[in-house]
Amino acid sequence: MATTTLTTLAEFEKAARQKTSEFAWSYVSRPGKDGQTHTDNRQAFKRYRLIPRNLRDVYIRDTSVTILGTKLDFPIAIAPTATHRLLHPDAESATARGAASMNTAMVLSSWSEHSLEKVAAAAPRGVRWFYLLFYRDRGRMKRLLVRAERAGYTAIVLTADQPFFTFSFRKVPSTLPMPLWFPNIYLEDVPPGALGSLELADYFKKTIKEAATWEDVEWVRKNTRLPVVLKGILSVEDAKMAVRLGIDAVLVSNHGGRQLDGGPATIDVLTNIVRAVGGEAEVYLDGGVRTGTDVLKALALGARCVFIGRPALWGLACNGAEGVQQVLQILKDELNLTMARSGCAKISDIQPSLVVHESYYLY
Ligand code: FNR
């Protein structure tokens, strides 16, 4: 598909839908329950307005940022999402190449169908973080931490907002173009194709520790030399707890509205989390980021970087690594332009005074 004519993420979404099987599309798009949180993630961005500062010298702009000590060309990275092979045969390796070509970071999901080593080899110069699942067997977790470190992953991401997995493999249609294969999860004990979908669900139930606790987070922090990012933080209390445990960064996230429905839009809780963290850890945000203006608003409210989930998958579905690159390029260009129009020449010029919630002037 010629994707060079696509100029917005909304256009990528439309094109991706046409290219993707019904099963894959519903997997990628589905919100949790009624979709209130999923919808609000998007709508909430629109409730913030920008108050630009004009007549500043913004002729030359610099969108670069440093997260966990690594410089990125712009503050937009790729959130962990599962099973990229449903969208494109080159799967996570293509996503990693797309991110690396733009000099930004990608978080690889444990639920990837290319092993963490294969993804590392596909984009050796890319910035890669690894999303580690919690397992019942700590030895298994330790082996994965070592594998991630050896393969050049530079941070471990733990997801706090998924205490229950649906393991809906019972619903996977027999028409799936592939057997499902999760090399980061099986470790050495399951050869490819050995398990049918029912056995898979049982295998996951037996090995993955669904309802993890702070104690598990602390164990990970003590058992890796890599920085740890805690993803799925929405409350001030949890943010403070993360800081107390020495977590390096919190990612304000509601899983793209796929877990608890009825929770807040991420942008609406960002300010409180930033305040609670008080500079003791980096703060990131994901959920509903679709334009450069959204990015600017999140940065103004205190996020150091934002992450995208579904939009990267739309790019992947449309055009593999190149599609991922194009989606990132669109967001980067939009951010750059919005920075110019709001009087910001560099990321540190993006300050809270740039943004006002509509309720301040409507009422
Ligand atoms: C996800 N997300 C997710 N999060 C996580 O911590 N581990 C995972 O394996 C997955 N898998 C996953 C699959 C799919 C298909 C989607 C859409 C999402 C959540 C993801 O990391 C991120 O929080 C949201 O996708 C961000 O919201 P947007 O950008 O999709 O609106």
From TrEMBL:
<feature type="binding site">
    <location>
        <position position="109"/>
    </location>
    <ligand>
        <name>FMN</name>
    </ligand>
</feature>
<dbReference type="InterPro" id="IPR000262">
    <property type="entry name" value="FMN-dep_DH"/>
</dbReference>
<keyword id="KW-0560">Oxidoreductase</keyword>
<feature type="binding site">
    <location>
        <position position="159"/>
    </location>
    <ligand>
        <name>FMN</name>
    </ligand>
</feature>
<comment type="similarity">
    <text>Belongs to the FMN-dependent alpha-hydroxy acid dehydrogenase family.</text>
</comment>
<dbReference type="GO" id="GO:0003973">
    <property type="term" value="F:(S)-2-hydroxy-acid oxidase activity"/>
</dbReference>
<feature type="binding site">
    <location>
        <position position="253"/>
    </location>
    <ligand>
        <name>FMN</name>
    </ligand>
</feature>
<dbReference type="GO" id="GO:0010181">
    <property type="term" value="F:FMN binding"/>
</dbReference>
<feature type="binding site">
    <location>
        <position position="255"/>
    </location>
    <ligand>
        <name>glyoxylate</name>
    </ligand>
</feature>
<feature type="binding site">
    <location>
        <begin position="286"/>
        <end position="290"/>
    </location>
    <ligand>
        <name>FMN</name>
    </ligand>
</feature>
<feature type="binding site">
    <location>
        <position position="231"/>
    </location>
    <ligand>
        <name>FMN</name>
    </ligand>
</feature>
<feature type="domain" description="FMN hydroxy acid dehydrogenase">
    <location>
        <begin position="1"/>
        <end position="360"/>
    </location>
</feature>
<protein>
    <recommendedName>
        <fullName>(S)-2-hydroxy-acid oxidase</fullName>
        <ecNumber>1.1.3.15</ecNumber>
    </recommendedName>
</protein>
<feature type="active site" description="Proton acceptor">
    <location>
        <position position="255"/>
    </location>
</feature>
<dbReference type="Pfam" id="PF01070">
    <property type="entry name" value="FMN_dh"/>
</dbReference>
<feature type="binding site">
    <location>
        <position position="27"/>
    </location>
    <ligand>
        <name>glyoxylate</name>
    </ligand>
</feature>
<keyword id="KW-0285">Flavoprotein</keyword>
<dbReference type="InterPro" id="IPR013785">
    <property type="entry name" value="Aldolase_TIM"/>
</dbReference>
<dbReference type="InterPro" id="IPR037396">
    <property type="entry name" value="FMN_HAD"/>
</dbReference>
<feature type="binding site">
    <location>
        <position position="258"/>
    </location>
    <ligand>
        <name>FMN</name>
    </ligand>
</feature>
<feature type="binding site">
    <location>
        <begin position="309"/>
        <end position="310"/>
    </location>
    <ligand>
        <name>FMN</name>
    </ligand>
</feature>
<dbReference type="GO" id="GO:0001561">
    <property type="term" value="P:fatty acid alpha-oxidation"/>
</dbReference>
<dbReference type="InterPro" id="IPR008259">
    <property type="entry name" value="FMN_hydac_DH_AS"/>
</dbReference>
<dbReference type="GO" id="GO:0005782">
    <property type="term" value="C:peroxisomal matrix"/>
</dbReference>
<dbReference type="InterPro" id="IPR012133">
    <property type="entry name" value="Alpha-hydoxy_acid_DH_FMN"/>
</dbReference>
<keyword id="KW-0288">FMN</keyword>
<feature type="binding site">
    <location>
        <begin position="80"/>
        <end position="82"/>
    </location>
    <ligand>
        <name>FMN</name>
    </ligand>
</feature>
